[in-house]
Design a protein that fits this description.
This protein has 239 residues and is of the alpha+beta class. The chain has 9 helices and 6 strands, in the order αββββαααβαβαααα. Strands 1, 2, 3 and 4 form a 4-stranded antiparallel beta sheet that branches.
Length: 239
């Protein structure tokens, strides 16, 4: 019986692991790049919007609703079409497609106003722990961190108070992000604004808040959606 050194066994194990890993990656890539010539996604223009088609039939969301977009969402409709076309319909996975999954939230869930009202309470919790409202103390990092935060986050804080015409409290501490409950009047006015958003705006707000851990950054992205590209680029720079 031949003995094998620990080093050889270790090398053999890792070589085999790498081969299996490489084969797995190849199989996954093949799966998602596989194209069936008989399947195709298209966009149909309606009198009041756009509809995603799969093989000339309405493409549906997981809950069975038809993928339809209003006329004002033509850019989103075409973007979702491109995402759909990037995968084989046979293996299409919604969670790999950010705009498609966002659209599903808008169509399946937030098309109902009662669902938007229920979700608004969950989103407002981010306001009490908003990243841009948690400032460092004057002593931390020799005060340099506070100076930088005021430069980056100060304008956002001022914008939020002016936009909703409310008082928004911020904190200065050495403990990072802590609970910072906002006045009831502030919460009520902002909640009213949130609940009046349409299903597309609400879905986008939810995604922006969760990604940035900031209610205010998410809200400004929605409130200034029709602003100049330069202003929108400035918001993205803060993310």
């Amino acid at each position: 019986m031949h003995s094998i050194s620990k080093r050889s066994a270790f090398t053999l194990f890792h070589n085999r692991r790498d081969r299996l890993y490489g084969r797995l990656i190849h199989d996954i890539a093949t799966r998602f790049n596989e194209k069936d010539s008989s399947d195709s996604f298209d966009l149909k223009t309606l009198s009041d919007g756009y509809q995603i088609l799969l093989n000339n039939n309405p493409f549906k969301t997981p809950s069975g609703k038809i993928f339809e977009f209003p006329l004002r969402k033509h850019n989103l409709a075409y973007s979702v079409l491109l995402e759909c076309r990037s995968f084989s319909p046979k293996f299409f996975e919604y969670y790999f497609s950010p705009l498609t999954s966002l659209s599903i939230r808008a169509i399946d869930i937030f098309s109902e106003k009662k669902n938007r009202e229920q979700a608004s309470d969950r989103l407002l919790k981010y306001l009490d722990t908003d990243t841009i409202l948690s400032f460092a103390s004057k002593d931390e990092s020799g005060g340099d961190l506070l100076v930088l935060q005021k430069k980056m986050w100060g304008p956002l804080h001022e914008w939020a108070q002016k936009y909703w015409d409310v008082q928004i409290l911020k904190t200065n501490n050495d403990f990072g992000i802590i609970m910072n409950p906002q006045p009831e009047k502030t919460r009520n006015l902002i909640k009213e604004w949130v609940c009046n958003l349409d299903q597309w705006q609400f879905a986008a707000l939810e995604r922006a808040i969760c990604l940035n851990k900031s209610f205010i950054i998410g809200a400004k992205m929605i409130a200034t959606a029709n602003s100049s590209p330069i202003e929108r680029l400035g918001i993205i720079h803060m993310m």
